Amino acid sequence: MAHSSLEEISAQLESPNSRDRMLALAALRDVPAADAVPLIKKVLEDEILQIRSMAVFALGIKPTDECYPILVKLLETDPDYGIRADAAGALGYLGDLRAFEALVRAFYEDTEWLVRFSAAVSLGNLKDPRAHEVLLQALDSDEVVLQQAAIAALGEIKDINSVDHILRFAQSEDWLTRQRLAEALSQLPSEKSVSALKYLEKDSHPNVAAAAKIALERLNKAST
């Protein structure tokens, strides 16, 4: 991108018009990370929450050495739980394994379910097997979305030892939970997984049945 374009975006990020600032952030999508991050930082303290949220997300997909410490600080100290959740999500996109401890802390210590949900999803994105214990605890949450996030994440980290723990959700009243289970089992090859997927293939909800069918095909392909 031409230098003048970067200057235009930089000027637009300082516009008093919030729509201009949003458009400028969107324009950074095609800008190399090294050039984009200093500009993203300009609006991390924006008065408009949606702009802050966009900026935090942008840090997750524009990895530079600066992004990790900024996101961890936001996750641990920002007064707005939406921004803390965004920071947890961005750390998952960043894929930096150093984020493991910060995400685990957020899961255990943050009082807002949205932050804990985002942390659980990102632990799956990191694909770090150390997340096993945390995610098993998330399965016992009162929040259905946290259970769903944990099931999906256990699949992402290919935690074969979790199969016995997640199979109980084949009986869940929530169809999306059953769908998440089918999707997770596609990454956890075992006889129990195949058996559960054959059961879920007959599910009354078409999305669950379709997910189970795809999962069985995936497991069959992997075993041949």
**Integer average pLDDT:** 95
Using DSSP, what is the number of strands? 0
**Any idea what the shape is?**
elongated
SS field, number of helical segments: 14
Overall radius of gyration: 20 Å
From the N-terminal CA to the C-terminal CA, the straight-line distance is 47 Å
> Structural class, from helix and strand content?
mainly alpha
- Which oligomerization state do the chains in this entry correspond to? single chain
**How would you sum up the major sheet?**
none
Strand percent estimate: under 5%
Helicity, as a percent range: 55-70%
The topology string of helices and strands comes to HHHHHHHHHHHHHH
Which ranges are low-confidence, i.e. pLDDT below 50, for 5 or more consecutive residues?
Answer: none
Descriptive labels:
mainly alpha; 224 residues; single chain
